[in-house]
Amino acid sequence: MTSSAFTRSQLDRRGFLRLGGAGALALAGSSFLAACSSSSPSSGSSSGGKKDYGTIALQLSWIKNIEFAGEYFATEKGYYKDAGFSGVTLIANSGSTTAEDVVVSGQALVGLSSPSATAPAIAKGAPLKTIATTYQKNPFCLLSLKEKTPISTVDDLKGKTVGVQSGANQVIWEGFLKANGLSTDDVKTVATQYSITPLESGKYDAHFSYLTNEPILATQDGYTPVTLGFADNGLPFVAETYIVTQDTIDNKRDLLKAFLVAEIKGWTDAVKDPAQSATYAVTKYGKDQKLDQTEQTSEATAQNGLIVTADTNKNGLFTLTQDLIDENIKSLAAMGVTTTADKLFDTSIIDEVYKENPDLIVSLPVPSA
Predict the structure, then answer these.
(1) Which pLDDT tens digits describe the chain residue by residue (369 residues)?
(2) Is position 195 within any domain?
(3) Residue 75, Cα to own-chain centre: how many angstroms?
(4) From CA 337, how far away is CA 330, in angstroms rounded?
(5) How far apart are CA 198 and CA 169, in angstroms?
(6) Please, which of 22, 33, 209, 309 could form a disulfide with 167 given CB 3.0 to 4.6 Å?
(7) Quick one: 192 and 210 in the same domain?
């Protein structure tokens, strides 16, 4: 199976999980109010002065591919063990549930998600908070082709036809239009799936896409991709966010800080070495997915552009500036979700991590836009 064939075969499942939005919007009220499990680990016992946090589970937002390279490095390099964990179990998400459900029910202590999923869950009563973020920018974009009808600015959109998937992607798309002062009268929207074949055959001008995925497929097919990223054009919100319950924040603060230290170390390594990140994904953690080494390396390289910014080089990976938090709240409002920063975010833990471990702040190359 070629890389393109594999990736396209997975995209239908990806449609449910794109940043957790589709599942959360559909299931926000289904099971969040179930009683929280008491099976989560204790806050850590001391033995000879060293914390022992036991084994915890991390609910991933998707299959075990390149998106979780930092977790692979943290496992392989022993960063979790150094932080006091016997192990961290990485739970892949097949699309049958959301990270919000899993964390609230106690099946995982930490989950990876997005404000577009977590905010609606909180509105339904889920006792959750976002404590850090891997992606400083969401990966959503419009993909067009230089050889056909390139769309490189918002102004280029007027009068064009865009293929958008139903569900959460449609909600995000409408939020993007609203944030840019556009309406469905300015841009024609047609329903599509996740394959870019209709775009390549000229059935519409742009395809609602993921910056780290479909543009790479277009290149493999011999086209020159042109992308219009939502994060840089009116709809900035973060992604691959770390979510936990308020109870965990209140009672397992040291555990969370230890966990984030290991995560920061793992992601620092992953950013520095996209090729090794791909190797871990292809040969071990995602081996059953039949991933392609070249394609995964390309995704890892593209992914760095979402993780590393001037702000993360100043403040540290996973941090959120107040401006970025405010932008998230505005973007959610454009998507029809009303919330406040204090309801959605608690950055005090990641701030403490860097105050106590300033050596974790490492200057990394900021990828060009």
Answers:
(1) 333 333 443 433 344 344 444 444 444 444 444 434 333 444 565 444 578 999 999 999 999 999 999 999 999 999 999 999 999 999 998 777 899 999 999 999 999 999 999 999 999 999 999 999 999 999 999 999 999 999 999 999 999 999 999 988 999 999 999 999 999 899 999 999 999 999 999 999 999 999 999 999 999 999 999 999 999 999 999 999 999 999 999 999 999 999 999 999 999 999 999 999 999 999 999 999 999 999 999 999 999 999 999 999 999 999 999 999 999 999 999 999 999 999 999 999 999 999 999 999 999 998 875
(2) yes
(3) 20
(4) 9
(5) 17
(6) 22
(7) yes
Residue at 219 is within a domain: yes
Q: Is residue 369 part of a domain?
A: no
Domain boundary residue, one of 229, 251, 274: 229
Domain, as residue range, for 126:
3-137+237-360
Paired with 243 in beta bridges are: 111, 130
User: Based on the domain organization, do 195 and 301 belong to the same domain?
Assistant: no
Are residues 40 and 56 in contact, defined by beta-carbon separation less than 8 angstroms?
Answer: yes
Contact 11, 62 (CB under 8 A): no
CA distance 121 to 115: 9
Phi, psi of 123 (to 5 degrees): -60, -25
Q: Are residues 307 and 323 in the same domain?
A: yes
The H or E element containing residue 241 is: strand 239-245
d(CA 261, CA 181): 41
Tokens 């300015």: give the residue.
Answer: 186
Give the total residue count for the chain.
369
Under a CB-based contact definition with an 8 Å cutoff, are residues 151 and 257 in contact?
no
User: Which CATH number goes with the domain that contains 114?
Assistant: 3.40.190.10
Q: Are 346 and 244 in contact (CB under 8 A)?
A: no
